[in-house]
Amino acid sequence: MIAPLPSPRFSRRAGLSALGGALLLAGCSNAASVPTPTASPTGSIRDQLQSAIGTIAAGQDKLGVAVLDLRSGASWNLRGDWACQSASMAKPMIVSMALRKAAADKLQQPLPPEQDAQANKAIKNSDNDAADALWPWAGARPAYDALAKDLKLANTHSAPEKDFWSWTWTTPLDQLSFMHQLVKGDTTALTDAQRSYLLGLMGQVQDDQTWGVGFPKSGTVQVEMKNGWVQFQSTDNLWAVNSIGHVSGDGRDYLLTMMGRYPSFDAGKAYCNAIGDWVFRILGSGELQK
Fold first, then answer.
1. CB distance 146 to 124 below 8 Å
2. Tens-place pLDDT, residues 83-99
3. 43-283 carries CATH number 3.40.710.10
């Protein structure tokens, strides 16, 4: 198994600044009241995860979470096979598609200047225009499905009803596998240089988008991540709010993915922050065992 390549990464912070911009907040209500686990879950790390995340997720049937402790190789999930649209969580896949195209076409590496700028904006700033431009350049639906197949993500695929990156479907367990392949290099779908490039971008996400996997905390802990959020007004009017990433340092080394459907963006963000916080606390107290 190939060791992860070094890349610039952001540090977890003591707090998060409020998300700005009319696009993010349009149609949102105040953050939901998230169920609070007991202050000190007891038992094994697995039992603590089940207790804390189970309490947070109580009554939420459209929520899936998956965790992999890279120290032990043990995993845990709650509805990890629950499928939903990716929203901007698809952007690491889009950049991966672009990297593969550039290599196959023997273009400037890792990407030509225009596409490099778009990849940076798509990941660091979650810029939709940049993703819109990269999607067709990188091959759109056929390239997405080919990448998912090469990554062995059985439940990740383009949307049959719409050729648009935000509508691509995936699951928390598939995203956990994707992150594992990015971090550990146990894949032939992407080269070491391509993985390093993408993880480098995921370690530089702008501050107000580091909620979820990136919430909260210590400057000694590093994160590579990407969130996704969008309201599906044409279907159920709910918000898909998702977060994936790798947390390392201060004795921790784990992958976390979460996907959910909520009545507002604020509600989704609150749930993602609560899950990210409790996983961080629990895995800071010991290793998850198989």
1. no
2. 999 999 999 999 999 99
3. yes
Six-digit token string for 230: 């969008």
The H or E element containing residue 229 is: strand 222-231
* pTM score, whole prediction: 0.90
The residue among 90, 97, 96, 89 whose CA lies nearest residue 140 is 97
CA dist 137 and 52 (Å) reads 43
CB neighbour burial string for 238-251, b if at least 16 within 10 angstroms, e if fewer: bbbbbbbbbbbeee
* Ranges of each domain in the chain: 43-283
Rounded distance, CA 90 to CA 170, Å? 9
Q: What is the pLDDT of residue 162?
A: 84
pLDDT of residue 56: 96
How distant, in Å, are the alpha carbons of 140, 181, 234, 283 from that of 5?
A: 28, 12, 41, 23
